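Residues and backbone
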Amino acid sequence: MAGEQQHAHETVAPQAGHEQQTCPACGLRVDTVVRRRKSLGVFIPVWSRGPCRNPDCTDYVERQGR
């Protein structure tokens, strides 16, 4: 539609009222990431574990510049 803004489909929500997620490899806390999926025409939030930021971890993901 005309005039609609594009939004990122992934949002970091560290204090969203959900249990804090941990990295399965190193056990340190990671951000909680909110993604969305569409069900019956409505967007439903899906809370999941974000990437690990510990440089010593095997699952480490480097931050990307904006």
About this structure: The first strand starts at residue 10 and ends at 12. DSSP finds no helices and five strands in the chain.
